Structure prediction request, 230 residues.
Amino acid sequence: MPINGRYDRNKKTLSDEDQSRLATSCVAIVGCGGLGGYIAEELARIGIGRLVLIDGDRLEASNLNRQIMATELNIGQWKVEAARDRLRSVNSEVQVDVIKEWFDEEKGPKLLLEADLVFDALDSLSARVILERVCHQLQLPLVFASIAGWFGQIGVSLPGDFSVLRLFGHGEKGVESSWGNPAFTPAVLASLSVAEGIKILIGRMPALRRAWLQVDLLTMEFDRFEIGDI
Prediction:
């Protein structure tokens, strides 16, 4: 249902033309846990026209500490369905498509076919590399982020860059499996991810192409590294 004034506070940051571009954009989020949930929420609030949510997992009690879609009432629900239900109450103008399965290379091109931008919110290093490869095949920009404890990384991979492969190409699971994740880390990295993604959608150059931002929330240090340095 259209609500007058919904995007008034976007103005001056985003032009009317920018807002129109967002309204006609389709964004895919692969992974709807801690990172992906916050990314979806912010994209719905800023006015993305269509979201495609991809995740093959259900909510469990351990998600309550950090996943914005998780409540005591929806434990056991598919994460993508919980996200869709919440986003409908946030912005009913946004079309939300849910895909209750894990992303893989065979199905990937079909799942992302109509997307203009992809967010990587996965926790498997090998799956991240596969996602980037599919995005390259489809000529899609990719914003990637990872989180663990007090720390996070974020970068942008445009078609042909293969930044994810260079950063995460050797390994299966990130350190989040042993360090865990508090509530604040996914929220911070998701916001940084959305900021870079919005730039891409409105035709501005992202700051983290062929680079990554290392975030240390314990010491409040943010360091930018060029991919060419590794």
